[in-house]
């Protein structure tokens, strides 16, 4: 045991406990003992104190006894004459530091000085649960808390990228000599937030309590431990939470003290400076405190020390590839080229072939590559994937195809939105400059389909087309297949089945979103119907599509089922209580971001409008599709607004609680044409064969003032339905 470390840590603990004491005195004076203290959105009060001491700190006055206890953990700073052969006193100092830091942060919330600029602040329970899933399913092997600053911002980026590449969640913060890694990353335009796995917590060492609070709560949430089970909580963190600290730059007393706190939880500290190491294997799984001066080796060292099991993706593409990049956005300014949306034609299509007809691993690019497109421009694209396998079935095509979304997105600097013939690809400039070309789409799909769907896929070949005539041809073939897929569920009713299915595929973007898929209502992306859910469950019983027994029917008209509600609660991680399957106004389903179309109420017309993703212009609710998408997306429940798959428009269950298709008062012309055949059949059934012509479109107008006279003139049925609001 190093004397220097013990001295510094104990000194640091004394100092921070002293600061906590004077802050608490001040708070008692200025705010009173009854003033409420709390962190945002947590059921665990001050989590470290709650977990280790079993105390619920709710107001300023509750902190007094905790502070007394904390002071009791402080031992004298060892003099030179004392040799401490074990960690005991240092560990006590560490725990005292964590309690003091936690109280300071809670008091800062009371004073409104947290979160700091550009920082996340305290991590809510929701975030903890969401990311917990990723820990459990292995998407995230562990997390790193970085304290301090790298020697320069380029090195900071390098370290962060190395961690991202391994899907390790990064908490960035604290400072060294007045510089914080947070500002180094900002200077290099590194995207930060939960989606890219880089979360800035705060610019001082005290705020490093946030990631530790997050870790200790996982013992309570996932480990099923109760408050006050200190030893068990610490053991859980050590055994189950693969975290480590990375101290960049000189360590001061408080960093040593906080580090000692982390070591209690089994989290080792790796530093990039000449520090005295503590290498015996005792409390931590491996070493406690280790230095690594070589920045090329620092991340591998961390992983080795903590025993994190990472699966580095071995796809042969020129940019990093991992789930950490899945939610990353490629902005227009940093985009080299895009395909799809309103900018060019694009389609992705996967089809089953005989084993003999597929050469595994073959990737062909037919037509000009990205270089040919002007910078910031667009080009047509068709991605045709042929798969074969002894266990492959035609029914599995759409499920495999729907995976493209996340596969493509995981490449750094590549963005994918949508599916089928409304897919939208973007490749960033930096990614292009690193050498990323169209062939790499093929490499990614080949690798991932084998890796994740290897049970059913034996061979994968990919063709990428960029000449318009080829793209049109694939579009034509795909359209036939898409229609066939959609037709398979036609004729099935929700009443005829015992189970619906969940789909939680989009939780990587919208963490609490789920689709409930029934025969008469497909997923809002339009690419997943009830049979797909069923097939997907067959392929992977622990996957994203789980059967939902309907349970008791609570309201047949609105479509409220006890089983659905249970599934909604479970898969939204307690965020949502209820989904009505057939209503727009009462607890409707949530929307992620993949919706083919959006419907929104037009109160003046006592009806709704539906706008499809491809329609670029203004709509009667005063918003374009993109603005509307921002308002409804992200997994929120917003009565009156709903993302839907196009086919739902012609379902017998289309907002049947509100009167069904008779409510539609406006749709863009292109959408009307797209649904015409099916719509007219349904309108006939409803007894209004000419309903489609009574629906206004942009040729009538794009404001309520313009469309109202038209609706009155044609006698639109919505006007005589019961009031919507
Ligand atoms: Fe699944 Fe819904 Fe996402 Fe489609 S939009 S992939 S159905 S969660
Ligand atoms: Zn989605």
Question: What features would you describe in this structure?
Answer:
The protein has about 725 residues and is of the alpha/beta class. It folds into three domains: about 5-305, Rossmann fold; about 325-485, Bifunctional carbon monoxide dehydrogenase/acetyl-coa synthase(codh/acs), Chain M, domain 3, CATH 3.30.1650.10; about 495-720, Bifunctional carbon monoxide dehydrogenase/acetyl-coa synthase(codh/acs), Chain M, domain 5, CATH 3.40.1470.10. A six-stranded parallel β-sheet has the order 5-2-1-6-7-8, with helices on both faces. β14 (about 415) and β15 form a beta hairpin. α1 (about 5-30) packs parallel to α4. It is globular, with a radius of gyration of 29 Å. Mean pLDDT is about 90; it is low at about 80-85. Zinc ion binds near residues 525 and 593.
Topology diagram in text:
Layout: H1 3-31, H2 47-53, H3 63-72, H4 88-111, H5 125-136, E1 143-148, H6 153-165, E2 169-173, E3 175-176, E4 179-180, H7 181-187, E5 198-202, H8 209-221, H9 230-240, E6 243-248, H10 253-264, E7 269-271, E8 289-291, H11 298-306, E9 335-340, E10 346-352, E11 363-366, E12 377-378, E13 381-388, H12 397-402, H13 404-409, E14 414-417, E15 424-428, H14 429-433, H15 438-453, E16 459-465, H16 468-488, E17 499-503, E18 515-517, H17 530-539, E19 547-549, E20 553-555, E21 560-561, H18 562-571, E22 597-602, E23 607-612, H19 625-632, E24 641-644, E25 664-666, H20 669-686, H21 691-694, H22 704-714
Bound molecules: iron/sulfur cluster and zinc ion.
